[in-house]
Amino acid sequence: MLDALRHQFGDPIGYALPVFLLFIGVELVALRFLDDEQAKGYHGRDTAASLSMGAVSVGVGLVFRAGALLLYVVLWEHVAPWHVPTTWWSWVALLVGVDFLFYWYHRFAHRVRLAWAAHQAHHSSEYFNLGTALRQKWNQWFEVLAWVPLPLLGFSPWTVYTAFSANLIYQFFVHTEKVDRLPRWVEAVFNTPSHHRVHHGSDPEYLDRNYAGVLIVWDRLFGTFRAERHRPTYGLTTPVGTYNVISLQFHEYGAILRDVRAAGRWRDRLGYVLGPPGWRPEHSREDGGIPHPVVHRPRGDGVDGPA
């Protein structure tokens, strides 16, 4: 356990932070001197909110990860049928496994409202830049569960989070409008800025697409891929309209609580919590009830409202 914690406090994310800030500076210079009338660039208060949310997320992440390591060590030591040796091939297998699980965790976070309540903070910016990549959620509860299969398969707990950190570092660099399409083979295999711009779009044809972390092949395999056809409209389908980081992080939990309190049936209460974002009971649609305030309408949920 002490060895796992030692590796945890040597998390690659900590070493990558200065690099992130350097590349934000490079992007700012590029936006200043390279013409691109469509690029939204940066907005001072929006970027300040993103950086603040990222700073708190790093601190909160240490707590969540330390707790997760306790769970993973118990599973690895007492439940896993074998221990996978730490070799080059196990690192390759682990990186692919982390990316596969990230795809499903990310898809879950968009399709189950309770998980979306945490994740929506990352999508709340109407700007798309490297600063937006640092706009991270504070409630990281589901990530603890997302990686449970890996220690159960015998991967050492500290290697799990090291691989996840490498995945997140890669994802930082796909949050930019200054990189256009990459070579066709790269676009076919990897998540790219073009693919991830689609994911951050609130346009109806872009909702719930391109969940990939590193490999876009998961979206192609499981039917969630969408190519970039036009410059997306970034942000939530119903903008939050604030730069207050507390509101950005927690407003959707308040909306869930209001909906649950107003619901008359347990079935409806569960729907508001575990259904997709924008869900509301069929009877409220039929009797002309007040529509649910959509924050990020998934495709095909039949909710009337802004897209």
Q: Could you characterize what this model shows?
A:
- This protein has 307 residues and is an all-alpha fold.
- Helices cover 57% and strands 0% of the residues.
- The chain has helices at residues 2-8, 12-33, 44-78, 88-111, 113-123, 141-146, 149-152, 157-172, 184-189, 193-199, 217-222, 245-262, 266-274, 282-286.
- It starts with a helix and ends in a 21-residue tail after the last helix.
- Mean pLDDT is 88; it is low at 288-307.
Structural class: mainly alpha
Compute the separation of the termini in Å. 48 Å
What is the average of the pLDDT values?
88
Element order, helices and strands? HHHHHHHHHHHHHH
Give the proportion of residues in helices. Answer: 55-70%
Rg measurement, Å: 20 Å
Unreliable segments of 5+ consecutive residues? 288-307
- Sheet of most strands: none
Shape: globular
Beta-strand content bin: under 5%
Give the helix tally: 14
* Tally of strands: 0
Oligomer category: single chain
In short:
This protein is mainly α. 57% of the residues lie in helices and 0% in strands.
Summary keywords:
single chain; 307 residues; mainly alpha; 14 helices; 57% helix; disordered C terminus
Topology summary:
Blueprint (H helix, E strand, L loop, with lengths): L1 H7 L3 H22 L10 H35 L9 H24 L1 H11 L17 H6 L2 H4 L4 H16 L11 H6 L3 H7 L17 H6 L22 H18 L3 H9 L7 H5 L21
Helix pairs in contact: 1-8, 2-8, 4-5, 4-8, 5-12, 12-13
